Each structure stands twice: as structure tokens, then as C-alpha cells.
Amino acid sequence: MNVVPDTSVVIDGRVSATIDDGQFEGATISVPEAVVAELEAQANDGIETGWDGLEELQRLADLADEGAIELEYVGERPSAIERGHASEGEIDALIRDIAEDLEATFLTSDIVQAEVAEAKGLDVEHVTPETREVDVGTLTVETYFDEATMSVHLKTDTVPMAKRGELGEMRYKEIADEPLDEATMDEYAREVVDAAKESSEGFIELSEPGMKIVQFRDYRIAIGRPPFSDGIEITAVRPIAQTDIEDYENAEELKERLLERQRGVLISGAPGAGKSTFAQAVARFISNHDYAVKTMEKPRDLQVGPEITQYTELGGEMAKTADALLMVRPDYTIYDEVRKTDDFEVFADMRLAGVGMIGVVHATRPIDALQRLVGRVELGMIPQVVDTVVYIEAGEVNTVYDVRTEVKVPAGLTEEDLARPVIQVTNFETGEPEYEIYTFNRQVVTVPLKEEEGGPGSESGVDRIAKQEIEREIRSVARGYVDVQLKGQNTATVYVEDDDISSVIGKGGGRITDIENRLGIDIDVRTHDENPNYGAGAGGASANGRGGGNSGSSGGQAAGQMVTPEITSRHIVIPVDGNHGETVEVQAGGDYLFTATVSRGGEIQVSRGSAIADELEQAIDRKDPVTVVPS
């Protein structure tokens, strides 16, 4: 008797089990090289089924040595093209062809393979896939947790570590005396994966070569294997607290705001601050008040009730998940986490379609969450996408912002013709505006309306932006050192070299009047000899590194990313690594040149022929280092 097994039955270990039962004892087992190639590729990629299949081949070799069967390997290894089309059934077809050529019994645990083989007239033996009995009472990984443990971190040849403590006061500490060896780590990893496969309380969220993410009960467990990681690593995380929205300050106001109508909310905070815990509390609250709530997560680890359906990526894309959700039409969707540009675009699309959206975002300051939308969403649409920002710190609601648009003259400017749409960010508790976001000279600026910390003499955000813009305008016509000092909210004194006085003022004062009208600020132009602080290193913004301090920084040059601009026929292109959608300062030789927003493509373009471009080209010609500094 001749038997040809396919890949599925080798992985399941049912070939040797069937032989042990006596059904195929004494038979010739013809293993196709295509099966060996599949198992080898899976094992090389760190996929456990590959190793399971190779172990089964070793068992068959042992049975052959004992004389229980005859073992042979037949056929040719599949080509790269055939392996590339394995998901379309090319490898399966090769294996069936071998069974047909040998007139052998085709052994499989794949029901699709069995049906196709029978349709083609093969003698088919279909066996039910093996179900391993797995004790899912308690995983070994779970024994490392106590009531104060948020996450456990295990790695080959490393002492087990854990994050333990209260929210906002977590400590990363050793929780054992001895490191774990590779065999122990492999056993732990297999136990987790087996439990996820066999238990109704778990599932495999992600399975890629070298990485598996499992959701088991309340635990999210990530398993890394070589070559993806440099050793077997297991990271298990669980929520350590479950709260209700009433447990937070401003609960009544927040509840009224959420139930008033569907809103766009960003829940922000640093890692471990309690963002997801708060998001869970919000999800339960609005679900209990007659709103249909869904979640979008990758991985799915929010702890919510069964009435809230949790969705992950559909076809590998959250955009497809969003399309499906728009057909379901939930009242609110919890998006955990919003990180990449695609995530923000999906969030915005769903919000503009009328779905209430609550996104979880990493941010170190409350305003940072909102600034991550700049460049990703059209500026004027931001308040329609996000009207509430909740900042979580140490498990508590630290700040709540209300976001809305007003047409007004931005703070610090007075001319009526400077009125424009301004995004006003107001502290929900005090009712006081704290930031304004608007376009200024074609750049998006975020201006704090309160003085920065550092004492009464510290420079406000409005002052800093004003000084930078005045300096930029004056430097476009002055050749020497420029020092800007603000004398009031709407007045400034500019000190320039003697030779530059006439250029800056212009014929009949026309040039300085044009600058004043553009900026909405009265400017008094004087020489450096009239500056009482000249040479003392105080006050103004340095234009070329001689004399006063560096514009836009305090106490020295700000750290920045060194860049290499490219000059094309029409633009100067500045490539930026990171900071996509963020507002940055461009400096040359440590001196401020201009403020710009980094495009989604990771670059800043300056049109040649403009004053800014001329200054930048001159700096490039002088070989001054050009740097990009986050604003």
C-alpha cells in the first residue's frame, strides 16, 4: 500500500498516529518534496507549524528504522514561482499530482484538499484535524503577575522583569533570581499559542514570521522569535484597573458633553498613564446610555462588555474596517490607537461622516495631541474632526480642552485686515483660551496665550512668533546684524547696521510701512549704537550669529536635525526625517530663518526667488550647517 500525505496532516502529526493505530502499518509513505519545502520555509520564518511538521517527519523516520513502514521522498521541490502562489493552491496541486501518479492513497486533514482530490478521482483518506488537549486553567506566564503588575517581560538568558506599581508610578524591576534558558522560554511560548488556539477565551491576533500576538482572557501576549528578535521574548500585558467615568474629575461635565451629541474626542497621555483605562470607562458609559458603540483596535485588548463589538484590521487595513463600520453605522467608535497618518485620516473620514469618534493618542502635553492633526487634516476642518481633548496623567484627567473655530484677529495682532479663521483651544474647566492655531505668512503656527514657565521675564509664544516674523521681514532687506526687541503688544524696535538703515526704511518710509501693514505691528528702526544692550548679549534675536542670543531659543542653540537641502529649478527642498505634519524651525548656522510645517512626504519646499529662499541659498553657499528644530 502506498500513502501520500499532504502538508496539513504532517503538521497535525496524524500520519504517525494513524500508523500507530495499525491502519497504515507496513505501508510505503511517500512524502512529497513540496511538503518538505513548505515545512522548511515555515520553520525558517519562525512559524511553529513548520517545526511541528519537521518533528513529524523525524517520527516517520524513526518508524521506518523500526521497520513499521517504508519511507521515501518523492517529486521535485517547487519553484519560487510555485511557492509564491502557494495560497492559490499551487503546492496543493503538486502534491495531488504525485498521489495520482503513484496511484496512492491521498492522506489529508484539509477538507478542501479532500473534496478537490475526490472530485479528481483520487483515493482519499480524510482524517479530522488533531485537537490537542491543552490545560488552559492557568498559563505559566500568569504566575508572574500579582495585583500590582501591569506587564511581565521574559527573554532568553535574561532575569524575568515586570512593571509594577500604581498608575503613573510604575517601576521596572526584576521579579526572579535566575535567567530563563531557551528551552524554558520555548515551552512558555508554545503553551501560550496552544492555549489561544484551543480555548474559547483566547485567539491569535497577529501571526507573522517571528512574531505572534495572542489575546488570552485579560492578557495581551506578544511572542518574538529569531530572526525577528535576537532571542525568544514574551511580553504579557494586562489592565490593572477598571474604572467608571464617575471616578474621574469633571465627570458630570464630560458625561453631558459626550451624551449631548456625537463628538470627536482625543484621549491623550504618555505610555502607562491610563489612557486605555479611561477609554474603556467612556465606552461603557456611552454604551449604557443607548448609544451603539464599536471599537477599532490592533491588537484588540480593550476590556469592554460583550455588547460592544471589537473590530481589528480588515484585510490588513483599518481603512477597510472603517468602510465596514460605516455600513454598520455605530453612534460612537473607540479607535485605539491613532498613531500613523493613515490612522488620523481614517479617524477624520469617519468623524466627518457623522460617527462619534474617540481616539487614543500618545502625547506628552495636552496640546501635542491636537498638533498631530496639523498637516494630516485640513486646518479649518480640525474642530469638526476633534472638538474635545482629554489629557490623562497618572490615571487622572489632568486637562480637558474645548476646540472651536472663530474668525478673529489672532492674539498679539491688532489690524482688522489680519482677521482670519483661528482655532481656539480653551481649558474646559476654567473657560480660558490657552492656545490659538492659525496660518501666519503661509505657515501654521500654534501660539500659547499664557506665558511660558520660567518667571515673569520669560517670553510668551506670541512674542516669540512675532519676533521671528519681524526678524525674517527685516533680514530680507538688511545685510548686517539685526536685533529685535518687543516694546509692547503691538510695537517693536529693530536695531540694524548703519549701512542698512536706508534699505530697511525705504524711500519715503514705504518699505517699513509695508512690513508694518503685513505684520500689524508698529516698528521703530534704529542703529545698534542706540541699543543700550548692544554688545551685552541681552535681548534681541540674532540674525547672523554676531552679538545677541539666538532667535527662538533661550540659553543657546536648540538641538536640531542636520539636513542637506536640494536646490531644484523652482524650489529648495529640505528633507526631514520624522516630524511629519509638525511645525518646525529651519536654522542656518544656528540662526533662525523661518518656520514651516513638514509635509506628509517628509520635506519642506521653499519657492526660489523669495526672500526666505535667497537667505537659505546664501547660507548653503557659505556652507553653513542647516538644521530643523521642532517648534
UniProtKB/TrEMBL annotation:
Q: For the AAA+ ATPase domain, which residue ranges apply?
A: 261-386
| Chain intervals with Gly residues compositional bias | 536-558
The protein's name: ATPase
Mind listing the GO molecular function terms for this protein?
RNA binding
One Pfam family here: T2SSE
InterPro entries named among the record's database cross-references:
AAA+_ATPase, KH_dom-like_a/b, KH_sf_prok-type, Nucleic_acid_metab_PIN/TRAM, P-loop_NTPase, PIN-like_dom_sf, PIN_dom, T2SS/T4SS_dom
Coiled coil region boundaries:
none
Indicate the segments forming the PIN domain, all copies: 1-115
Q: Does the keyword Transmembrane apply?
A: no
> Region Disordered: start and end of each range?
532-561
Per the record, the similarity remark reads: In the N-terminal section; belongs to the PINc/VapC protein family.
Q: Which UniProt keywords apply?
A: RNA-binding
